[in-house]
Structure formats: structure tokens, C-alpha cells
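User: hey, got a sec? need (Fe-S)-binding protein folded
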Amino acid sequence: MKVALFVPCYIDQFYPNVGIATYQLLKKLGCDVAFPLNQTCCGQPMANSGFSATTTGCDKNFVENFKGFDYIVAPSGSCVLHIKDHLKDEQNPEEAKKIRNSIYELTEFLVDILKVTNLESTFPHRVGMHISCHGQRGLHLSSMTETMDKPFSKPEQLLMQVKGLQLLTPERPDECCGFGGTFCVFEEAVSVKMGKDRVKEHEANDVEYITAGDVSCLMHLEGILKRQNSRVKTIHIAEILNHTV
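Assistant: Yep! Here you go:
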């Protein structure tokens, strides 16, 4: 299984350990992992700000870097969703289509493609799971409370396999953290209030860590936690799944 690792900008610039953990985890699970060195931004920030026409260069570069792989995996639901929904290349339309159909968010790949049921991971801590909006409502990584469908969560399914981990659920498990990309810039006060509400529910469960599949959400929550001098830390799910004693 030839897998290409896509490391989004936030991770590359601020949280490189998440990319390393993802790479190591995929290798442990038997994947032949490659990291295309010329990869850059997927174009999501521009598209979300209404400048989708300026992402042509990002699209072409993405296709050039990730063509020819069986699967593409990224530890970021929002970036994966952007590629699935928006990647195009007029010069290589078939390659772009193939990539759109073969890119996966990390937990989605582990559950749906690798069928992981027995992780050799250990993380003896109290952990709260933050469900990111793009992953839940775009990639359908977990059920939505408003639909009243049978509950499921691919990230939590994996976390339940981690030895020693105690998973605690907030009162409103699928509420937005308030990050929302450029929303946190243009609507700063609302964004911060939403983040504080998320943090408050996790702190009520006396968690040691808040985890998620999107570094952008975790960075937003981390900023609030640090400003409140909270003892709660943030950690990407890839780092937990890759953690051993």
C-alpha cells in the first residue's frame, strides 16, 4: 500500500510533531509512506475567504506532488475536505479526480481502509475529545446529535483502543470551538466566547488533555487555555495513537 503523507500548513509551521507522529503511526501499521517534498498549502485559506480563483497554483502543485499514490493521508479534516470538494486541474482532470477520491483524514483511513481494531498504544490520562466541524459534518467521521442517527465516532473508536486512556465526553459533544478559519479574525469576540464555552465543559470533566483531529481547532483552544492559566493541555489524536510507554 503506497501512501503519501500530506502535512498541512498549520502542522508544518507550528506543530511538526503531529506530522512526525502521523508518519510513524502509518509506518507501524505497515504502510509504505512517502512525503512529497514540494507540497505546499492546499488552498483552503484563500477559498474560504472568497478567493478560490487564486488557488490554481496550489491545485496544480498538489496534483503534481500527489499523483500516482494509492492513498493520500493527512492529520487534518478541514484540509482533506477542501481537497475532496474543490481540487481541480484543467490540464490533468483525471489525476485531480483520482486524488479527490483517494485522500483521507487520518482516523478515517485507519478505520475505513486499514480496519484497525487493536492499536498497541498507551496513554494513561483523562482525555476529552473535541469533534471538529469539518470532520463531522463534511467527512462524516462521527454522528451529529441533531440528526438523531445511531451514534458513531471513528476518532473515539480508535481512542477506545488506547491502553490506560479514559475518554470523557463534554455535555455538548459536537459544538463548534469557534475557530472557523478566518471567522476567528473577523468575529474575534464571538470566536473567543465559543472557545471558552468548549474549554469550560472539558474542564468540568477534569480532563488532562483535549484532543482533536484538526490542529487549527486545538491551536484555538490552546490559546484560551494558556490565557486562563489552565492545567489542561491540547494534543492531536495522532500523537495519542502513536504514543507508547
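Quick note: Residues 126-241 form a domain with the Rossmann fold fold (CATH 3.40.50). Let me know if you need anything else on (Fe-S)-binding protein.
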